[in-house]
Amino acid sequence: MTRVGALVSRVFGALVLAALLLVASTAAAIWWTARQDSRPQSDAIVVLGSAQYNGVPSSIFAARLEHALSLWEDGVAPVVVTVGGKAAGDQFTEAEAGRDYLMDAGVPGESLLAVPEGVDTLESMRAVGAAFGERGWSGAVVVTDPWHAMRAERMAEDAGISAESSPTRQGPAVQTRNTQFRYILRETAAYLLYRVTGESVVVAPGIG
């Protein structure tokens, strides 16, 4: 092998190693963030939407809403923000379904804010950032699934929100170790793609 060939081989090997280390460190950070539970006094609790069926939250969404309800009852923030748009043909947005669920659970209307925008996390966070700016709010506790927390925090920060996360510990996303492993792999790809492109890239159903 010539000197040039050896140099190219070493550079290629170094790049592959750097890429593997980046993926591994990102996956480890997602795992670590998922295990945290930050509950600082904030302007609002932001619940990221998920599927709803004719106004009834899915099991994943309901788990997030129940956790947000617990945070609100503990006095973490005076307002719960539900966020998320709707798919073609839906009558209700995710934000509306989440707001109605919490109202039925006893949260008064003045403590709820529905932001019915966004087909993915990035669009939703940008809409929430605009709503925060209009009200002079700055701090939020973000409620989502554990493996989604790091990307959600990052997108919230990029939208001008000082965000920490309190992930739900219930629901399908945390049922088995195999499920958790798959979610970490998907979120690692989604987080790295977001950092590279600045946009929300769908890498698997439900990941965006």
Please describe what this structure looks like:
This protein has 208 residues and is an alpha/beta fold. The chain has helices spanning 3-34, 59-73, 94-104, 121-135, 149-158, 177-197, and strands at residues 44-48, 52-53, 56-57, 80-83, 112-115, 139-143, 162-165. It has a domain at 37-176: Rossmann fold, CATH 3.40.50.620. Helices cover 50% and strands 12% of the residues. The strands form 2 sheets. Strands 5-4-1-6-7 form a 5-stranded parallel β-sheet. A two-stranded antiparallel ribbon has the order 2-3. Helix 5 links the parallel strand 6 (139-143) and strand 7. Helix 1 (3-34) crosses helix 6 (177-197) and helix 4 packs across helix 5 (149-158). InterPro entries: Cell_Envelope_Assoc, DUF218, Rossmann-like_a/b/a_fold.
